[in-house]
């Protein structure tokens, strides 16, 4: 019998996190466990408020799950399809069970998921560290704290874009990922920004315009000198199939995709149609980040900085080497409880 346990937790952010649409100092999460024959798999749901999930909604959803109909955890496809069928939405809640299930099955098989999927764990892109919207002085402080990272992800779209870029470039020459979080609504303005940002060393531009402006986004993608990456505009595989062609690539996150099973399908689909792939995250512990990292060898860009933005990670810290996350050669997702 597979047993599901879960408990609420709050992640404390190192700095208040501000993007084009909101600001916050903590992120609610739910920690899940699936146990089978004495082995425990760990999972996590992270709920940034703008996605609409909370401690209450995740606990309510998880309470509806009845795994008694499954004799063992190995039929992952069937189990995640059942969980997905319980109710629409609840993507982070679904991810928390999916991640624990993958950890459990990997442990029972004695293999890490990157091995099961056939990825080479030594071939991962360097990960970026996110710098939220802030005053020029705080931007400089945050860039100074990011010395272990070789790429920075700069949040724009809040009205002081030029000031932020000037502050960043006054203290570092590192390559930059730019994320405007749907902050610009005029396509010509967005194109001017893309050209200007390229001059300043931006490598990609994430969700520059509101996801509803799909024709403007497709036009921008055609004209932009740097790749335009979807984030808010693409959550699941079905979104990727519908809207992917308007972008140069997609930022895949476990909390959007309902977990590792669908995220893996999204990575494979995106690659098959020539889209670039970023593996990204919300504010998450080493648990969900270790799970996402299993996919990073198949991605062009890694943005898995969650544990570096919080002060109370309940799991062993993620190791960073030469700007890359080290994927532990441990069965399952490779996460360990902090000792
Ligand atoms: Mg984003």
In short:
The protein is α/β, with parallel strands linked by helices. The protein contains twelve helices and 13 strands. The protein folds into two domains: 108 residues, Enolase-like, N-terminal domain (Enolase-like, domain 1, 2-Layer Sandwich); 211 residues, TIM Barrel (Alpha-Beta Barrel).
Topology:
Layout: E1 3-18, E2 23-36, E3 39-46, H1 55-63, H2 76-86, H3 91-109, H4 113-116, E4 128-131, H5 136-145, E5 151-155, H6 161-171, E6 176-179, H7 187-199, E7 202-206, H8 214-223, E8 228-230, H9 237-243, E9 249-253, H10 254-257, H11 260-272, E10 276-280, H12 286-293, E11 301-302, E12 320-321, E13 324-325
Parallel strand pairs: 4-5, 5-6, 6-7, 7-8, 8-9, 9-10, 10-11
Antiparallel strand pairs: 1-2, 2-3, 12-13
The site of magnesium ion (MG) has 6 residues, from loops.
Q: Could you list some keywords that capture this structure?
A:
alpha/beta, TIM Barrel, 2 domains, 35% helix, binds magnesium ion
Strand content: 15-25%
The CATH topology of the largest domain is TIM Barrel
- The CATH superfamily of the largest domain is known as Enolase-like C-terminal domain
Unreliable spans are none
* Percent of residues in helices: 25-40%
- Spell out which ligands are present: magnesium ion
CATH architectural name of the largest domain: Alpha-Beta Barrel
Instruction: Provide the residue-averaged pLDDT.
Output: 96
Structural class: alpha/beta
Number of domains: 2
Helix tally?
A: 12
Question: What general outline do the C-alpha atoms trace?
Answer: globular
Q: Separation of termini?
A: 28 Å
Radius of gyration: 19 Å
The count of β-strands is: 13
The helix/strand order is: EEEHHHHEHEHEHEHEHEHHEHEEE
Strand order of the largest sheet: 4-5-6-7-8-9-10-11
- What composes the largest sheet? 8 strands, parallel
CATH hierarchy class name of the largest domain: Alpha Beta
């Amino acid at each position: 019998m597979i047993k599901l346990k879960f408990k609420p937790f709050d992640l404390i952010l190192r700095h208040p996190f501000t993007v084009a649409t909101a600001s916050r100092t903590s992120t609610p999460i739910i920690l899940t466990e699936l146990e089978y024959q004495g082995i425990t798999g760990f999972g996590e749901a992270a709920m940034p408020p703008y996605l609409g999930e909370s401690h209450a909604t995740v606990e309510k959803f998880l309470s509806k799950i009845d795994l008694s109909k499954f004799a063992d955890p190995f039929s992952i496809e069937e189990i995640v399809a059942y969980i997905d069928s319980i109710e629409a939405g609840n993507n982070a809640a679904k991810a928390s069970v999916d991640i624990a299930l993958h950890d459990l099955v990997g442990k029972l098989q004695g293999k890490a998921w990157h091995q099961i999927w056939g990825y080479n764990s030594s071939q991962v892109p360097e990960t970026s560290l996110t710098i939220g919207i802030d005053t020029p002085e705080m931007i400089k402080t945050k860039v100074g704290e990011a010395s272990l990272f070789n790429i920075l992800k700069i949040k724009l779209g809040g009205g002081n874009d030029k000031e932020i870029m000037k502050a960043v470039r006054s203290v570092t020459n590192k390559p930059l990922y730019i994320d405007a979080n749907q902050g610009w609504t005029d396509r010509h303005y967005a194109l001017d920004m893309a050209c200007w940002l390229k001059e300043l060393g931006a490598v990609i531009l994430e969700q520059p315009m509101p996801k509803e402006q799909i024709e403007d986004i497709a036009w921008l993608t055609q004209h932009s000198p740097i790749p335009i990456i979807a984030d808010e505009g693409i959550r699941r595989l079905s979104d990727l199939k519908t809207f992917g062609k308007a972008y140069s690539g997609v930022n895949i996150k476990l909390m959007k995709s309902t977990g590792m099973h669908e995220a893996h399908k999204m990575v494979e689909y995106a690659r098959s149609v020539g889209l670039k792939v970023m593996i990204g995250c919300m504010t998450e512990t080493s648990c969900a980040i270790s799970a996402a990292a299993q996919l990073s060898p198949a991605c062009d860009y890694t943005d898995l900085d969650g544990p570096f933005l919080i002060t109370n990670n309940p799991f062993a810290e993620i190791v960073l080497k030469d700007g890359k996350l080290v994927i532990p050669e441990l069965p399952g997702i490779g996460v360990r409880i902090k000792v």
